Amino acid sequence: MNKFSLFVLSLILVFFTSCQFSENIYINEDGSGKMEFSFDGSELMQMAGDKMSEGSEEKEIDSTFSFKDIFEEKRDSISKLSKEEQSKLKALEDFSMHMLMSAENKKMKMELFTDFKDANELRDMFTALNSASNLQGKGTSKLNDPNNPFSSMATGGNTDLKYSYNNGVFKRTVKVKDAELQKQVTDSLGPAAMMFANSKYKLNYHFPRKIKSVSKEGALFSEDRKSVTVEYGLIEYMKDPEVMNLEVVLED
User: Are the C-beta atoms of 115 and 26 separated by less than 8 Å?
Assistant: First the structure.
């Protein structure tokens, strides 16, 4: 694997623990659209100074690449994974990533995105990141790993996240499978919880028609009322993923 791709995959794990998340979904009238996850680690970059880029030749990055290309480069390693893990990676081939990093300007941003034909088949971002981390050659990333609180949010972990869009009604539904296990995962954060204290998770959803109602109080609407933004504290989401259940009803 080339140095750039390896560097990017290493940074994915950094973003796992220190960034601002935005989940952006654009839905067309026929249910197709685009899904994009944005990660802003600029604050971490500023706090870490030059340490973030030590040991790397990649000081300035502005690049877009597809996971399909990375999987091709790592096909030998992937062939050694279990059939289940190979299947998870196969499902991510349509994802692409744009990465911007500037050591001089202390900027670090990533966007993971894909087009979809049916909103009911949308995938969660944590599955994508958890699966991608397997390509580092350090063993398979584990679900419900106490050292990685986001691993419980990936498909197959302790939460089940589904999206649906039918008859003008969009739903984001999260179900926690085991409340005690979820508590163990979040309790294991300990002092590391301070890293997440100021982190936010924003939902930015865009629709082809005006929004009639949203199930969450405090939601912000665009001027044309076709877009809605809902913001949560990242710690709040980790402790209780179901808090981000959302229903958006569009006008006829």
Answer: no
